[in-house]
Each structure stands twice: as C-alpha cells, then as structure tokens.
Amino acid sequence: MIILFQLFFPGWAFHHPIQGFGFILFLTLAVFLSYSLYFLIVCCAFWFGEVRVLILAFNLSSRVFAGSIIPLEFFPNYMLQFIQNTPLPYLVNIPVNIALGKIPAEQWDWLFLKGCIWTLITVVTGHLLYERGIKKYEGFGG
C-alpha cells in the first residue's frame, strides 16, 4: 500500500523510508487500541440491554475527535489539549501525521509509549469489566 501510494501520489507522504516504518508501527498500535476501546463498550452489554447506541455515539465522536473528519489542528487550543490527553489521537491523527512527516522521529518513542499505556489501560479495564460482567450474566431463552 505504501509503495502504491508513493507511485500514484509522489511527494505527498513518506518522504523518508523511516516514516513508512513509523506509520506501520503506529497503525498497528491504532488497531489494538481501537479493538480494546470497542471491547470496553461491548462489555457494557452485561449491564445494559442494548449497546448499539453507545457504539454509535462512540463511532461519531471518535471520528471527529480522532481526526478522521476534521484535522485536530482546526480545534481551539483548550479542546486540543483535552483531546491530546485521550487515546483518540492515536487512532488516526498520529499515524497520519507520521506519514506526512509532521511529527519528527525524535518524538515517536514518547508517543508510542503513551499509546502503549493507553492500550494497556483499556485492555486491563476491559478484562476487569468482562470478569465482573460474566459473574453477573444470566442467560434465558432458547
């Protein structure tokens, strides 16, 4: 994909091969983080009968606050500071900015560590919710 992108849109992204590596690394982190965030929401089904509304609300808000619809740079500083302290920028904004060269390689280690911490927090929280929910779960019907 990265090679095809370079062939069809030369000079737009991946100005250096290390950016391709960073993009793949942070994209992998984004996949794990996204899965664990959705798992947290789905675990709420143990307490709520229907979680589709929660998933829809998360989908809409994460599209906006992850940088999919509106680049995060367009938000006011007070909102941007709040968004930067959530796991949402790791889903879209950070991988894209690495591909575009807007984030220097010297900052990747700190960003990757913060992303791993967010992933660990969501995985552990999801595991705890699942364990508590499975003890409460009662199935009926046939």
Overall description:
It is a single chain. With 142 residues, the protein is an all-alpha fold. It has a domain at 37-134. 65% of the residues lie in helices and 0% in strands. The chain is built from six helices and no strands. It has helices spanning 2-8, 17-43, 52-65, 77-84, 93-100, 108-136. Helix 2 packs parallel to helix 6 (108-136). The radius of gyration is 18 Å and the shape is elongated. The mean pLDDT is 90.
Would you summarize the structure shown here?
The chain is mostly helical. It has 6 helices and no strands.
Measured as a percent range, the helix fraction is: 55-70%
* Distance, first to last CA: 46 Å
Beta-strand percentage range: under 5%
Q: What's the multimeric state?
A: single chain
Uncertain residue ranges: none
Provide the residue-averaged pLDDT: 90
Largest sheet: none
Q: Structural class of the secondary structure composition?
A: mainly alpha
Q: What order do the helices and strands follow?
A: HHHHHH
Rg from alpha-carbon coordinates: 18 Å
Count, helices: 6
The general outline is elongated
Tally of extended strands?
0
Helices and strands in order:
Layout: H1 2-8, H2 17-43, H3 52-65, H4 77-84, H5 93-100, H6 108-136
Helix pairs in contact: 2-5, 2-6
Q: What descriptive keywords fit this protein?
A:
single chain; 142 residues; mainly alpha
